[in-house]
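Table S2 (continued). Query chain:
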Amino acid sequence: MKSLVFLSVILTAILYGNSEHLIVGNVADRVVLANHTKVEYNAFPFMKRVKQYFYSGPKVIQGIQALDLQHSKSSVNITAGGVGSTFVNLRFKSERGGGLDYDVGIYVKPDFL
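Corresponding output:
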């Protein structure tokens, strides 16, 4: 039984270890999802694909979550704004010959707290 659990942990680490997720700030406790978006870009042979995502809202951002749904070697960076401001700019870059498929969530503090 212990070897089966160990094997499943190792396989999970291998399969999901290469993906580049971005989780910044508070995305779980006493925050609400203000914006939920899918960022997609098709693959093109031998090229890296770059896409920008912009969010601007009336409330201060408490957390940002960008999950790589393809579990690829693509990357995501915050280029402006972010946690503590009312806007954020994200830059996504795929691996060579690959596409982008990210699930982006922007979290803010609710009105009732």
